[in-house]
């Protein structure tokens, strides 16, 4: 089947990122009205012809997650009813990804429910970045490209001498991610052993690995309330780290997160624009946002031209 014209659309979740992607690809955003009716229901109207087109909808399902998820689904339905050729949802941040398995009796697997939701709404393909749980790709019966933000986040870290660097995983589950960063930077590896007592709260216990006299970089997929990552910085300094930085793909930054980071022992905190920064995060002296537009633009170009996407997984 011949591939139609490339078109990029966006909802209200992160139009700035969509605009950056278009600038990278040298194209214009396809007009799409996203609004609400007086009763709060979502209104979507596509502003140009998309018949037979290869459409990419940029919409992270970040807070308010239910609104943005529903808005994305309505956009997908509108595109299908407008006889789109192929539609790819570009969801840099996949909401509900932490609910990927049953953690208690009678608990839902919401990440799977979201995959069903998007599939029924009409996606042909999904592009996302640093899924919290990689197995979510298997929840879909269609192609899923889970890109890594490491190429973008590694750039500001290369100024540090690799001999003085140690990459730190904030928990055992993130070791694979931390090891990938350590390998790329030629740095050492350490792990923070922690015990989680209840949701959004964790107690850092001790450090496995040598961080004494080194610049420690804590690597994670997201920062939510920042309780875990700030406790990790304290433990690293107590174990002799000379300075501490953090890298995280998704700046969820809920509750007191920004205040905690501002008052933390971190020198700098690098995040991406998978989620737009809140106003108080923009004014935080320690938070530095790095754009994913180039990475996502390359992925969109390769998918549209039927080229390899795996070349981006390096």
UniProtKB/TrEMBL annotation:
Q: What catalytic activity is recorded? A: D-ribose 5-phosphate + ATP = 5-phospho-alpha-D-ribose 1-diphosphate + AMP + H(+)
Please name the InterPro entries in this protein's record.
PRib_PP_synth_CS (IPR000842), Pribosyltran_N (IPR029099), PRTase-like (IPR029057), PRTase_dom (IPR000836), Rib-P_diPkinase (IPR005946), Rib-P_diPkinase_bac (IPR037515)
Can you tell which superkingdom this protein's organism belongs to?
A: Bacteria
- The EC number of this protein is 2.7.6.1
Which enzyme type, at the first EC level?
transferase
Q: Where is the signal peptide?
A: none
* UniProt pathway: Metabolic intermediate biosynthesis; 5-phospho-alpha-D-ribose 1-diphosphate biosynthesis; 5-phospho-alpha-D-ribose 1-diphosphate from D-ribose 5-phosphate (route I): step 1/1
List, alphabetically, the Gene3D superfamilies matched.
Answer: 3.40.50.2020
One of the entry's Gene Ontology molecular-function terms is: ribose phosphate diphosphokinase activity
Outline the subunit composition. Answer: Homohexamer.
Task: Give the protein's recorded name.
Answer: Ribose-phosphate pyrophosphokinase
- Species this chain originates from: Desulfobaculum bizertense DSM 18034
Which gene codes for it? prs
